[in-house]
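Sequence, please.
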């Protein structure tokens, strides 16, 4: 009789623990979905920016015309305006850091220098200089992928991120 009561008590406790684990897993899942929606507007802006870049790359660069047809009107200023738009769209160093760099440079993952570690960044800056650090960030070095793993970043945006991380680490950059 006592073994039967022990078995019932065990099953009741086991069932309660399993129910608690299932409820905890559901709550964690809901929190994860909720937390991922915070950065949705930035992601939408990023996708719009990338879509614009692709559309610019697909623009017609020449026209085939038959004999006797007049040349289409082409505004010379349009090409200059496209360059201005790209400059206006370039993300700041802080924004690039948040989207691509901080995953490794906030935690020191894979021996990445931690943003804010003045000694590490100062020695890198003294050893390599700004241009080589930017080149390493653009092309990748060691475990670091090119452009921090975000191939849509422009050279200017990568440079902004490097200058930002150096500044946040207390290194005065001769830009």
């Amino acid at each position: 009789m006592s073994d039967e009561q022990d078995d019932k008590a065990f099953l009741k406790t086991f069932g309660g623990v399993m129910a608690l684990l299932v409820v905890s897993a559901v709550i964690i899942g809901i929190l994860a979905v909720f937390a991922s929606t915070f950065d949705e507007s930035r992601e939408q802006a990023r996708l719009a920016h990338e879509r614009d870049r692709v559309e610019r790359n697909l623009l017609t660069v020449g026209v085939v015309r038959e004999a006797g047809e007049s040349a289409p009107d082409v505004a010379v200023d349009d090409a200059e305006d496209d360059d201005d738009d790209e400059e206006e769209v370039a993300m700041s160093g802080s924004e690039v850091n948040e989207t691509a760099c901080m995953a490794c440079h906030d935690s020191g993952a894979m021996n990445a220098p931690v943003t804010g570690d003045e000694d590490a960044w100062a020695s890198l800056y003294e050893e390599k200089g700004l241009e080589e650090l930017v080149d390493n960030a653009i092309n990748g070095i060691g475990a670091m992928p090119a452009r921090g793993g975000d191939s849509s970043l422009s050279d200017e945006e990568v440079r902004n991120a490097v200058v930002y991380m150096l500044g946040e680490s207390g290194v005065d950059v001769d830009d």
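Confidence is low (pLDDT under 50) at residues 75-87.
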